[in-house]
Amino acid sequence: MFIETKQLTKKFGGLVAVNGVDFSIEKGKINAIIGPNGAGKSTFFNLVSGSYQPSSGQVFYKGKNITKLPPNKIAELGVARTFQTTNLFEQATVLDNVLVGHRLRTNSSLLDAVLRTKRFKREERRCMEKAMEVLDFVGLTHVSDKLAGNITQEEKKRVAFALALATDPEVVFLDEPAAGINPGETEGLAELMEKMVGRGITVCLIEHKMKMIMKLADKIMVLNYGEKIAEGTSDEIRNNQAVIDAYLGGEASA
Ligand SMILES: Nc1ncnc2c1ncn2[C@@H]1O[C@H](COP(=O)(O)OP(=O)(O)OP(=O)(O)O)[C@@H](O)[C@H]1O
């Protein structure tokens, strides 16, 4: 089993945001979490990536119980994530944004940097190579010297992917990667996710764009009021009565 949650529960005061969720994220696949607004999707992500501690239940990563690990330790195991909004340094270039994001995760100390030790220079070179590699992967080489404030919304989404990929993750959690972009651009991001899976990276995403999810995801979990109401392939989810009921008059046509 790759990533597994067991009876995962998060309460905020009297509100049960995630309620006893058992789910397994399949390795090398595109896993999606859908559900109406406030269903608990982001909270579920935050629990799995260690940003929140569950009220009860467990998270297992490759058989290891990671429930109590802090987010940085979980990240070190190969788990990367993006957020609904990525705050880039708008006055810095795209390349520098990726370099800084990556450098925050390397080993050189401030002293190494000041003395420009061999280790620092080696890591600088490696960071630069990695940044160029991930920018090429996400299709942004041509804007690497542009200020992040001057690129399109869709390109900013790709920078968020690049930041996550620079850590060489085994799994990437993407929180609404296609929010706020048009259908053509959404198609491009879907292709990028497929390309990631082609490289052996597992993808888990939250998304409201149903057409995209139904086409893209290998496995879908549906949350409603914090509870898992369905799980399966696109076809299984499309024909599931509990899902149809939860979405009646909702976002299913989006
Ligand atoms: N830090 C928090 N403190 C208190 N309540 C919270 C907190 N985070 C989330 N909630 C509540 O938990 C519930 C689930 O929220 P969550 O953001 O996980 O839903 P979601 O499915 O991601 O929604 P959306 O699609 O709107 O992003 C909501 O009722 C929300 O108000």
Keywords:
binds adenosine-5'-triphosphate, alpha/beta, 254 residues, 6-stranded mixed beta sheet, 10 strands, 4-stranded antiparallel beta sheet, Rossmann fold, globular
Contiguous uncertain segments of 5+ residues: none
Please write the string of helix (H) and strand (E) elements.
EEEHEEHEHHHHEHEHEEHH
Specify Rg, calculated over alpha carbons. Answer: 19 Å
Q: What is the subunit organization of this protein? A: single chain
Polypeptide structure, described:
The protein is of the alpha/beta class and 254 residues long. It folds into 2 domains: 1-78 and 169-253, P-loop containing nucleotide triphosphate hydrolases (Rossmann fold), CATH 3.40.50; 89-168, no CATH class. Helices cover 39% and strands 23% of the residues. The protein is built from 10 helices and 10 strands. The protein has helices at residues 41-48, 71-76, 94-103, 110-115, 118-137, 153-165, 183-198, 210-216, 234-238, 241-247, and strands spanning 3-12, 15-25, 30-34, 56-61, 64-65, 79-81, 171-175, 202-206, 219-224, 227-232. Strands 6-7-8-3-9-10 form a 6-stranded mixed sheet, sandwiched between helices. Strand 1 and strand 2 form a beta hairpin. It is globular and about 60 Å long. It binds adenosine-5'-triphosphate.
